[in-house]
TrEMBL record:
Membrane spanning stretches: none
UniProt-recorded name of the protein: Allantoinase
Cofactor: Zn(2+)
Function description: Catalyzes the conversion of allantoin (5-ureidohydantoin) to allantoic acid by hydrolytic cleavage of the five-member hydantoin ring.
PTM (free text): Carboxylation allows a single lysine to coordinate two zinc ions.
Length: 449
């Protein structure tokens, strides 16, 4: 009789208290022992000697577009890509699926797809728009991890932008429900009018796009959302923060007691405006990727723990929608397969950013902020979720490596240092040596705040 379901032996475990060489045993999906040497047998033993063992990552921000826009991405392909990058869980946005997740009925339709198709665990965001203020409670009962709103046009007409009245009443309601609001912060009027002016003058290049969404649009709106969060006491998360100045506003507000944090995305740390100019529409997103000077300051803020977590904002589309003038095409970047490996390359190898902090930014912090208990770290009682990493193994990303429905990404052709070799979800290997090796076994994650 085996005592354990799984023992990972001799790995370098990236634990909250630091990196340590130890064995780790899993029983009934949970970590039950961590020790220098675990005696006894298991159904399955993995020799992890030479590998760094990270907690499997949780991507707090993806758009898998299922149901309704499965010609852009699907839960099957998106969750597979995530697993190939060391991911064991994701929180899917209330758009760009169709219908958008704005009430319990549409939540349940998405849940049904995920229960059948998701390779890894999943939580769902509900949406907040002017039209569904009376649906927040039913969405909370469904178990959403929080609510997402856009201050500017969302790119999807059926997901209306949140005006200031909706922000105020919505945050008052969410305070009562005890759930966070994540806001895509760009000033609606400035972005709309600058974009209209650019179009009227036929100014549609990449630089014209940057000029139509300048840093002030984010900075102004972050400051406004902080004011409303301060007034209402609602927990606020700034989505995909892109400017050092806006991060400074978040830090200042936190220090006076406002419940606000921010997320950033790998591409704001890795790519610059010049890269976008070279790469073209594949690297178009909003807010736009900024200059090197801003990026250097953002890294300093990451080192200073001023950013709570790093997600992918995986927002793919039909590639035809990327074909055209820069200002007019779809904004969104496919990236959920490469977040951890990008951070190993650019944070750890290039900048000596500690591995333990990478684990916190991609896993532990996300689960803690959203109240997902027993997930996000290598510790007794937590889910047996692991990403095995060969820290010095390099690779050049090929389009064929991608599990996305559409094999496009701004990172194709880039050199990475740090390779995910195996991903284990609750004790079951879901990805190994370049292949998906499991059927869909994802479970729904609900917050327990
Ligand atoms: N609708 C949608 O996915 N929008 C995302 N794309 C992007 O580049 N920024 C976003 O918020
Ligand atoms: Zn957004
Ligand atoms: Zn997004």
């Amino acid at each position: 009789m085996s005592r354990y379901d799984l023992i990972l032996r001799n790995g370098l475990l990236v634990c909250p208290e630091g990196v340590k060489k130890a064995d780790v045993a899993v029983c009934d999906e949970k970590i039950v022992e961590i020790a220098g040497e675990i005696s006894g047998s298991a159904q399955e033993t993995i020799d992890a000697a030479g590998s760094y063992v990270f907690p499997g990552t949780t991507d707090g921000h993806v758009h898998f577009n299922d149901p309704g826009r499965t010609d852009w991405e699907t839960i099957t392909t998106g969750s597979s890509a995530l697993a190939a990058g060391g991911g064991v869980a994701y929180f899917d946005m209330p758009l760009n699926c169709s219908p958008c997740t704005l009430d319990a009925k549409n939540f349940k339709a998405k849940l049904a797809v995920a229960q059948q198709d998701s390779l890894v665990d999943y939580g769902f965001w509900g949406g907040l728009t002017p039209k569904n203020l009376d649906k927040l409670e039913e969405l909370a009962e469904c178990g959403v991890v929080g609510f997402k709103a856009f201050s500017c046009h969302s790119g999807i007409d059926e997901f209306e932008r949140m005006d200031d009245y909706t922000a105020l009443v919505g945050m008052e309601t969410l305070k009562k429900l005890g759930l966070p609001l994540m806001v895509h912060c760009e000033n609606a009027e400035i972005t709309k009018d600058l974009t209209a002016l650019a179009l009227a003058n036929h100014k549609t290049t990449v630089r014209d796009y940057f000029a139509a969404r300048p840093p002030i649009t984010e900075i102004e709106n972050v400051s406004r959302m902080i004011s409303i969060a301060e007034q209402t006491g609602c927990k606020l998360i700034i989505a995909h923060i892109s400017t050092a100045k806006a991060i400074e506003l978040v830090t200042q507000a936190r220090s006076r007691g406002v419940d606000v944090t921010c997320e950033t995305i790998g591409h704001y740390l890795i790519l610059t405006d010049d890269d976008v100019e070279r790469m073209g529409t594949v690297a178009k997103c909003s807010p736009p990727i900024r200059d090197t000077e801003n990026q250097t300051k953002m890294w300093a803020k990451l080192f200073n723990s001023e950013i709570a977590f790093v997600s992918s904002d995986h927002s793919p589309c039909d590639p035809k929608l990327k074909d055209g003038e820069f200002l007019k095409v779809w904004g969104g970047i496919s990236a959920c397969q490469t977040t951890l490996q990008g951070l190993l390359t650019h944070a750890y190898h290039d900048r000596k950013f500690p591995l333990g902090n990478i684990a916190k930014l991609t896993s532990q912090n996300v689960n803690e902020i959203f109240g997902i208990q027993g997930k996000g770290k290598i510790a007794l009682g937590c889910d047996g979720d692991f990403a095995l990493v060969d820290l010095n193994k390099e690779f050049t990303l090929q389009a064929d490596d991608l599990f996305y429905l559409h094999k496009v990404s701004p990172y194709v052709g880039d050199r990475f240092r740090g390779t995910v070799t195996q991903t284990i979800l609750r004790g079951t290997t879901v990805f190994k040596d370049g292949k998906i090796v499991s059927k869909p076994i994802g479970k729904h994650l609900r917050p327990n705040l």
